[in-house]
Hints:
Aspartate Aminotransferase, domain 2; disordered N terminus; 2 domains; 18% strand; single chain; 4-stranded mixed beta sheet; 7-stranded mixed beta sheet; 484 residues; Aspartate Aminotransferase, domain 1; alpha/beta; binds pyridoxal-5'-phosphate
Amino acid sequence: MTTVSTKFKTNNAPLSHLPPLAVNPRVRGAIDLIIDELKREQASMTGARGSDSNKTEAYAAWMSRNNELRGRPTMYPYVGAGFGHGPLVQLADGSVKWDMLSGIGINMFGHSDSRMVEAAIEAALSDVCMQGHLQHNTDVLAISELLSAEAARVSRLRHCFVTNSGCMANENALKICQQKTQSAPRVIAFNDCFMGRSTTMSQIGDSAAYRQGLVQNILVDYMPFYDPAQGSRSTDATVRALKQAIARYPKQHSCFVMEVIQGEGGFNVAPREFLVALMQICKAAAIPIWIDEIQSFGRTENMFAFDTLGVGEFVDVVTVGKMTQVCACLFTSDFNPGPGLMAGTFSSSTSAYHIGLRGLEILQSGGYYGADGRIAKLHRAFRECAEDLVARRGEFFPPVVDSHGRTLPDVIGGIGAMLRLTPLGGDKDRISALLKVLFEEGVIALNCGHGPYHLRFLPPIGVMEPAQFKPVFAIIERALQRVP
Ligand SMILES: Cc1ncc(COP(=O)(O)O)c(C=O)c1O
């Protein structure tokens, strides 16, 4: 019998989030049969392989039709077959690749994970496909409950409003902060931050290309992020800049939005002392602190990255997304906004709620977190493989110099399961070329950073085994030899 999990309690009466049909014994038997077949089909998928020659032509035609419809080529010629095995994904041309990106961190249990398939079938047995803010089922409460309970253990966060995208969660966070500060017009953010693609978030995000041609109607004061090469001098410099911005625009800041671990910006990590110094200044000036964890949530040694960095006592608003499947804005009771500020026709799909909840429960209880948890082990395995490659093939790892002429202290970086490697001097064009070759050879990854550029890995933490980095690194080595 498959596992029927997740009950949550209201006034001591357990409420199942499963639809009635999903607990019918005959239906459970049918689900078991599907799961058995799934596992049988998966058994032979154990490594990367090339495409089927008889599918190449149809695949190329499909890709070019896809590019025509979008109006531009996609970064990779990726069309999934709808099947995989853990970190391995099958494409429609029959090839199998190591998915070290997992949809930029969303597919935390990789591909065709039996527990996620089971949750998706249960969701399909529900009465509706989409959940709304006006009418929703118990699944919506269950995930909100889980997220707020986890957050409440380590912060003053108590409330949770779910949405269907990270960007929309961020919009809600900004609205909450603006209302709280009586329409303060300015925002403080870090250099190189990324916040999503709405008109407002594109403006706050620190990338010129992403706001090209947009009307600029939000005022942002950018602060330098922590620079490990400068150490405590970096903290002093950002503290000075923050004090200056507050003195220049007193009572005009609605929030300091912090990606405490920068995703797009380059998997940059700041130490607690740096963050606390800034947060104390914000508290003294009554500037709300909003942490954007849409990329970092779930991927460090605690569920919340703000917890890993020990700054829970300071946070007022936190946004999460990606691996949660549904996104959310969490806030303290003090920041609970007035009625009418947050709503939306639908919040997300029933299957997103079921899969998100099942995944979060497994992460909570499956030994993923802590100094010796599965995530920490994955990090160590990645480092070992990376260090071995750098030691053996130093020619691919020349010193990396940033736009200010400073040398990067290490070509291996990141935290938890946000992993970064900087070959080829971090040169933009060569990193792009490498990513394409990697894809052909059987590893899917992405870049991050705005110069230097890095290889970015967001492996599916739920299913990736430390030993699986070995075949991945063998492909990385092979691909490096092919890049001009
Ligand atoms: C830190 C951060 N904030 C916000 C977003 C936007 O999330 P979404 O793409 O779901 O709108 C992203 C997405 O990459 C992100 O990394």
